[in-house]
Amino acid sequence: LFSSANLKNGGRPPLTYQSFVATAGEPPKPVMEKYSELPPIGDTGGYELLPVPKLEELGYGDLSQEYIPPFRGGETEALKRMRESLQDKEWVAKFEKPKGDPSAFLKPATTVLSPYLKFGCLSARYFYHCIQDVYRSTKTHTKPPVSLAGQLLWRDFFYTVSFGTPNFHQMEGNKICKQIPWRENGELFVAWRDGRTGYPWIDAIMIQLRKWGWMHHLARHSVACFLTRGDLVCMIYTIARCILFV
Ligand SMILES: Cc1cc2nc3c(=O)[nH]c(=O)nc-3n(C[C@H](O)[C@H](O)[C@H](O)COP(=O)(O)OP(=O)(O)OC[C@H]3O[C@@H](n4cnc5c(N)ncnc54)[C@H](O)[C@@H]3O)c2cc1C
Question: Which residue among 5, 40, 54, 119 sits deepest, i.e. has the most Cβ atoms within 10 Å of its Cβ?
Answer without folding.
Answer: 5
